[in-house]
Amino acid sequence: MIAAYHDEQLRLLLNHIRDGFAEFDAGEIDVFDLDEIIGHYKRSAAKLEKFCGYSGAQWLRAARNLTYFRDEGDKPDWWEAGTSRRDR
Fold first, then answer.
1. By the 8 A CB rule, do 45 and 13 touch?
2. Are 29 and 23 in contact (CB under 8 A)?
3. Are the CB atoms for 44 and 50 separated by under 8 Å?
């Protein structure tokens, strides 16, 4: 369950980088904006990784939390979780 969730959410985060490259290629953003998108991705992916855990006990905790969120109709927004303090 957690491995599938991690994969799904990581793919969604990677779409932000894909969109960033498309904007860069179209001349809509500059190299510094693209670099910020990549940094944002790294922060978001780290938050997701921390949530999902690295071992059995952490996976169990993550599964419980994820089940709770789904039951409540709430979903973590990992992109938002990676927003730097200066961007808030």
1. yes
2. yes
3. no
pLDDT of residue 35: 98
pLDDT 10s digit of each residue in the chain, 88 long?
899 999 999 999 999 999 999 999 999 999 999 999 999 999 999 999 999 988 888 999 999 999 999 899 888 999 999 997 666 5
Measured CA to CA, the distance from residue 44 to residue 28 in angstroms comes to 23
Please state whether 75 falls in left (phi above 0), alpha (psi between -120 and 50) or beta. beta
Whose tokens are 């927003």? That residue is 83
Number of domains in the chain: 1
Domain housing 63: 2-83
Domain membership of residue 88 (yes or no) is no
